[in-house]
C-alpha cells in the first residue's frame, strides 16, 4: 500500500557543512523538493544546477552512504593473460588493476574488446566476483560493438563487516561499501581512459542489485560517466524509501541486514524514513543532465518496482527542466530478481539511442503502473 502523501513539512536542506541529526530534521511525507537550496529558498535558474547538484550529493553522502575514499595514487593495469575469441569477434584480457595509496588495492578486471578499429563505447560492470558474466554476455556486448569491462568490487571492499581493500588502505575511512564500490567504478574509469580502444566519452556503468545501487551512486558522482544503468537495484538504488508495497524491502530491513553498505548514520533513520531530506529520486536527479536508465523486473517485489517508477517520474521533472527529458529512461520486463541478457539488451538499446543522438522519449503511457500517484507537490522552476 502506498503511504498517503500528507502535508509537506517544508524542511530546509542543511547549509553547507552543517547537517542536523535526525531528531532535528523535519518529517517530509512527500518526495522532497530537489530544487530546494540550503537557504530554504528554491533555485531559479539552470545555471544554479551544478551547485545544487553538489549540495544534494553532499547531503546524500552525509546521511546515507558516507563519502567516497580519496582518489589515491594513479591507477595502473597489468594484463595477465589474453585469449582470442572464435570467429574474430575480439579478445578477452585478464587485467590486474592497482589503485589506492601506492597501488595497494589490487582488483581484477575482465576486459573484452571487439575486433576492429575502435574506439568503442564501454559497458562497465562491477559484479565480476559474482561469476555470472559468461561467454553469452561477452559475445552479446561485443557483437553490438561495445567493450565489456567487469571488475570485482568485492576486492575494493568485502561484502561483509570485515574491513578489507580501501578500508585497510585508509583505516580511518568511514564510508559504507556502496561508496567504496562506487569509488571502484571511478578508478576503473581512470584505467579505461588509458586503454587506446576505449571511447572515453561513451562509458556506461551498470550492476545488479547491490551492484546496481553502487553503479547508480558511481554515475551520480562522476561526470565522466555517460550512461548510468542500475539493474533491479531497489533500496539504496533506484527504489523509493517513502512509497513502497507490502512485499518490498524497507529502510529498517536493509540497515538491519546490511548495515555496512551504508554510513553508520543511516541506521538512525530506521522507522523515520520521512525525516530523510531526500529520497532516491534525488540521487537519480544528480545524474542529470547525463543519461540514466534503470532496468527493472515486475516480479522483483522486494526491490519495489512501483517505487522505482515513482522516483523515475520525480527525477524526470529535473531532466525536463534541464532540457534533457529524453536522457532518463526506465525499462521493465516480466520475471524475477536477476540481471539477464534481456536487461543487457535493454541497456545496449538505450546506449545506442543516447550515443547516436536519436533518443526515443518513453512517455508515461509505457509505464507499468499508470495509477501510481504523484507523491510530490513541487514542480520545476519556471
Ligand atoms: C537483498 C537485499 C537487496 C538487494 C539484494 C542483492 O538481500 O535486501 O537490497 O541488494 O540483496 O544485492 O542481491
Distance between the termini: 33 Å
CATH evolutionary superfamily: Alpha/Beta hydrolase fold, catalytic domain
Cα Rg: 20 Å
CATH topology type:
Rossmann fold
The CATH architecture classification is 3-Layer(aba) Sandwich
- β-strand number: 9
Largest sheet: 9 strands, mixed
Please, what is the average pLDDT?
93
Structural class: alpha/beta
Describe it.
The chain is an alpha/beta fold and 382 residues long. It has one domain: Rossmann fold (3-Layer(aba) Sandwich), CATH 3.40.50.1820. It has helices at 49-65, 135-143, 166-169, 177-192, 210-220, 251-257, 280-285, 305-321, 341-356, and strands spanning 73-84, 90-100, 105-114, 120-125, 147-151, 198-208, 227-231, 291-297, 328-333. It has a 9-stranded mixed beta sheet with strand order 1-2-3-5-4-6-7-8-9, sandwiched between helices. 49% of the residues are buried. Bound molecules: beta-D-galactopyranuronic acid. Residues 209-210, 234-235, 249, 254 line the site of beta-D-galactopyranuronic acid.
Amino acid at each position: 500500500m502506498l503511504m498517503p502523501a500528507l502535508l509537506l513539512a517544508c524542511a530546509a536542506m542543511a547549509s553547507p557543512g552543517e547537517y542536523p541529526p535526525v531528531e532535528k530534521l523535519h518529517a517530509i511525507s512527500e518526495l522532497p523538493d530537489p530544487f530546494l537550496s540550503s537557504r530554504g529558498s528554491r533555485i531559479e535558474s539552470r545555471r544554479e544546477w551544478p551547485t545544487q547538484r553538489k549540495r544534494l550529493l553532499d547531503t546524500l553522502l552525509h546521511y546515507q552512504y558516507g563519502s567516497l575514499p580519496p582518489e589515491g595514487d594513479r591507477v595502473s593495469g597489468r594484463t595477465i593473460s589474453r585469449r582470442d575469441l572464435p570467429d574474430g569477434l575480439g579478445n578477452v584480457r585478464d587485467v590486474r588493476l592497482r589503485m589506492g595509496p601506492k597501488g595497494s588495492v589490487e582488483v581484477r578486471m575482465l576486459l573484452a574488446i571487439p575486433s576492429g578499429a575502435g574506439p568503442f563505447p564501454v559497458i562497465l560492470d562491477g559484479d565480476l566476483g559474482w561469476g555470472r558474466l559468461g561467454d553469452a554476455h561477452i559475445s552479446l556486448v561485443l557483437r553490438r560493438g561495445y567493450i565489456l569491462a567487469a571488475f570485482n568490487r568485492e576486492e575494493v571492499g568485502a561484502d561483509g563487516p570485515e574491513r578489507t581493500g580501501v578500508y585497510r588502505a585508509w583505516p580511518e575511512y568511514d564510508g559504507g561499501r556502496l561508496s567504496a564500490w562506487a569509488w571502484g567504478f571511478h578508478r576503473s574509469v581512470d584505467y579505461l581512459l588509458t586503454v587506446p580502444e576505449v571511447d572515453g566519452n561513451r562509458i556506461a556503468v551498470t550492476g545488479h542489485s547491490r551492484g546496481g545501487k553502487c553503479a547508480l551512486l558511481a554515475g551520480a558522482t562522476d561526470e565522466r560517466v555517460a550512461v548510468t544503468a542500475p539493474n533491479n537495484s531497489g533500496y539504496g538504488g533506484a527504489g523509493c524509501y517513502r512509497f513502497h508495497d507490502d512485499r518490498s524491502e524497507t529502510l529498517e530491513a536493509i540497515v538491519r541486514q546490511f548495515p555496512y553498505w551504508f554510513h553508520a548514520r543511516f541506521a538512525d533513520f530506521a522507522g523515520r524514513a520521512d525525516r530523510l531530506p531526500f529520497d532516491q529520486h534525488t540521487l537519480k536527479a544528480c545524474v542529470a543532465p547525463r543519461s540514466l536508465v534503470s532496468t527493472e523486473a515486475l516480479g522483483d517485489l522486494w526491490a519495489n518496482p512501483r517505487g522505482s517508477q515513482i522516483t523515475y517520474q520525480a527525477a524526470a521533472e529535473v531532466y525536463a527542466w534541464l532540457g534533457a527529458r529524453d536522457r532518463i529512461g526506465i525499462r521493465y520486463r516480466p520475471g524475477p530478481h536477476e540481471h539477464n541478457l534481456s536487461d543487457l539488451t535493454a541497456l545496449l538499446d538505450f546506449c545506442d539511442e543516447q550515443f547516436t543522438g536519436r533518443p526515443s522519449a518513453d512517455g508515461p503511457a509505457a509505464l507499468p503502473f499508470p495509477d501510481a500517484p504523484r507523491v510530490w507537490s513541487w514542480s520545476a522552476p519556471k
